[in-house]
Design a protein that fits this description.
The structure holds 2 protein chains of 2 kinds. By secondary structure, chain A is of the alpha+beta class. Chain A folds into 2 domains: about 180 residues, no CATH class; about 130 residues, no CATH class. Helix content of chain A is about 55%, strand content about 20%. Chain A contains 12 helices and 12 strands. In chain A, β2 and β3 form a beta hairpin. In chain A, α10 packs antiparallel against α11. The longest helix of chain A has about 45 residues. Chain B is of the alpha/beta class. Chain B has one domain: P-loop containing nucleotide triphosphate hydrolases (Rossmann fold). Helices cover about 35% and strands about 25% of the residues of chain B. In chain B, α3 packs across α4, α3 runs parallel beside α5 and α5 runs parallel beside α6. The chains are: A alpha+beta, B alpha/beta. Chains A and B meet through α1, α9, α10 and α12 of A and α2 and α3 of B.
């Protein structure tokens, strides 16, 4: 018999018990929708986080003071780590080839005031290269002037929120801003950037790093951001930075070097695992749906016992009976799968509309596997009822009216 | 032609063995018209089922059109039923969700007959039982006699050589019953071998041969 005839026969049989068919289809639809929806959200979270990190640039190298052991084992004993100083940053810039930009960073909290208005916000000390490294745009005036790392002038660049709150939206250029006891002349306002990796760049004051070290009375930098010429030379830059720092710190490797791709890779791993876990949880509901299908098929078999007997009498083979019932089960589950996919897509669209920050999207592999799994569920849970039907004794089956 | 040689059929019911057929020898030639008669439990239905390859003999040999079907597999037996045997039952056994044409078509769907040819053969079969005007009616919209006629059309649509009818009039009034008997007798006149299990002595008298059974044995000479 042709596959089309088989499908039509199964379809007519399903129409014979419409309500039951619809309900078990719904079961599968809910299972598939939850798998797809949760993977979509997990995928959205992954894209969001990795996207955030990627804006930092892929040829970026970050130097942190102190050695962070990421590979387990006992931490190094002996030797308090050396400070990561401005002189270290200057040495890296001078001695390491292929470094295009370098921004030492120090961070502190301070009370920032203008007249009677004041805010307690983060103050970031860095150099002019920071603008390019973080792809910042200046809305008004200019960013920190280029120049010697260890020369700090009393100028500052403020975020849009600072401008709004402390200057009431008026033009702050040329005005004086107090950071703690220190006075700074405002030379620029940054374009709105929003939250980025935990920092609200709109609510921040940026001052030259050398000045910041004095303001906060710090001896060590928070970190040094280094931009290599290209992604390809990042490895060699990393090696050279390590050499320079070991030489400067008396043979001790007491810094940590982070590249964005390693961070990206681990975030990717975490979120992929999270997504799979969500999908796994949702898959439980698919199993429940499968049992629902099995139930419907078993009822169908016992209800149609005499029909099965008749089929045997007119020469339908056992194999064909199995196929006919499997076709029914997989039609049910495929319909449920498609319905579930559509539902999930609609919900994902809605979530994107209401949560534009979370770019939820259903990965193709999730769509394909949800459909395959749905049909698979129908087949797996349909096998037993179908085999039961095919093994019925025709004489006893026909004895039923 | 049907030939049974020393056929026995035994069932296990609890600890007891029921001998439904005891060492039956029987020959029915092609185109014959045979009535199988006897009280309930005499083994006549079992005999019909064995002849129809729905049941297997416990012992003995069954030759159908000269071919021994005793040792065939399930699938091979299904194919024998599909091509050589038509069944008519007391309770019609129509599929309720399919209309008359759909019921007649059913054996051909599973036999892989092409759609166009199916339509032609359905029309012809329904015409031969006088139900062309009822093709789109579901079983519950048909009278008992009409249902049995749909069942007969279904039984002959694959062009079998043998028609086995198990109490075909048992669920019909006298008038419809007579029509059904006349219909299957007409098919027999066209060369189909006809075996009817019946309680009705009137049908028994109409048959060319009557086989009377009791306790799993044939008790009359073939007459």
């Amino acid at each position: 018999m042709s596959p089309l005839d088989l499908a039509l026969f199964a379809l007519k049989a399903l129409r014979g018990h419409r309500l039951r068919s619809v309900l078990s289809t719904l079961g599968v639809a809910i299972g598939v929708a939850s798998v797809v929806l949760l993977t979509g959200l997990g995928e959205g979270a992954r894209i969001y986080v990795t996207g955030e990190l990627a804006t930092l640039g892929s040829n970026l190298l970050i130097v942190l003071p102190g050695k962070v052991e990421t590979s387990g084992g006992l931490p190094l004993i002996g030797g308090v780590p050396h400070d990561l100083t401005l002189a270290d940053a200057e040495a890296i810039r001078r001695r390491v080839a292929l470094v295009t930009r370098l921004a030492p960073i120090t961070v502190g909290q301070a009370t920032v005031s203008c007249g009677s208005l004041n805010r307690h916000i983060p103050v970031l000390g860095t150099t002019s290269d920071f603008q390019e490294i973080r792809r910042l745009r200046v809305a008004r005036g200019e960013f920190l002037p280029p120049g010697e790392i260890d020369r700090g002038s009393p100028v500052c660049v403020v975020g849009t929120k600072v401008q709004r709150e402390l200057f009431a939206g008026a033009n702050p250029l040329g005005q004086t801003l107090r950071v703690g006891e220190w006075r700074f002349r405002v030379i620029g306002v940054m374009a709105p950037k929003g939250e980025s990796v935990g920092f609200d760049l709109d609510d921040i004051v940026i001052i030259p790093v050398a000045t910041a070290m004095k303001v906060f009375d710090q001896t060590t930098l928070f970190r040094v951001m280094i931009e290599a010429n290209s992604y390809e030379v990042l490895g060699s830059v990393k090696g050279q930075v390590k050499e320079v720092m070991i030489a400067r710190h008396g043979g001790e490797e007491d810094i940590t070097l982070i590249t964005q791709d390693s961070v990206l890779a681990s975030f990717n791993k975490i979120f992929t695992a999270l997504t799979l876990a969500l999908a796994g949880i949702a898959a439980i509901s698919l199993t429940v749906a499968g049992i629902g299908i099995m139930n419907v098929m078993l009822v169908s078999v016992s209800e149609r016992t005499s029909e099965i007997g008749l089929m045997k009498a007119v020469g339908v083979t056992q194999r064909q009976i199995v196929l006919a019932f499997l076709a029914e089960a997989s039609l049910l589950s495929a319909a449920g799968g498609i319905l579930g996919l559509i539902t999930a897509q609609v919900l994902v669209r809605l979530s994107v509309q209401f949560l534009p920050d979370l770019p939820a999207q259903v990965p193709d592999w999730a769509v394909m596997s949800a459909l395959f799994i749905a049909v698979g569920v129908g087949l797996v849970f349909g096998v037993w009822p179908a085999r039961r039907a095919s093994k019925l004794d025709p004489i006893q089956a026909l004895a039923r009216r | 032609m049907i030939a049974l040689k020393g056929v026995s059929r035994e069932f296990q019911v609890g600890d007891e063995t029921v001998h439904a057929l005891k060492d039956i020898d029987l020959e029915i030639t092609g185109g014959d018209y045979v009535a199988l008669m006897g009280p309930s439990g005499s083994g006549k239905s079992t005999l019909l089922n064995v002849m129809g390859c729905l049941d297997r003999a416990t012992r003995g040999a069954y030759l159908l059109d000269g071919k021994d079907v005793t040792g065939l597999s399930e699938t091979e037996l299904a194919l024998v039923r599909r091509h050589r045997i038509g069944f008519v039952f007391q309770f019609f056994h129509l599929v309720p969700r399919l209309d008359a044409a759909g019921n007649v078509e059913l054996p051909m769907v599973f036999a892989g007959v092409q759609r166009g040819e199916r339509r032609e053969r359905v029309a012809k079969a329904l015409d031969s039982v006088g139900l062309s005007h009822r093709a789109r009616h579901r079983p519950n919209q048909l009278s008992g006699g009409e249902r049995q006629r749909v069942a007969i059309a279904r039984a002959v649509v694959m062009g079998p050589s043998i028609l086995l009818a198990d109490e075909p009039t048992g669920n019909l009034d006298t008038h419809s019953g007579r029509e059904i008997v006349e219909l299957i007798e007409r098919m027999n006149a066209n060369g189909l071998t006809l075996v009817v299990v019946t309680h009705d002595p009137a049908i028994g008298r109409r048959a060319r041969k009557t086989i009377a059974m009791r306790d799993g044995l044939i008790v009359n000479g073939m007459g």
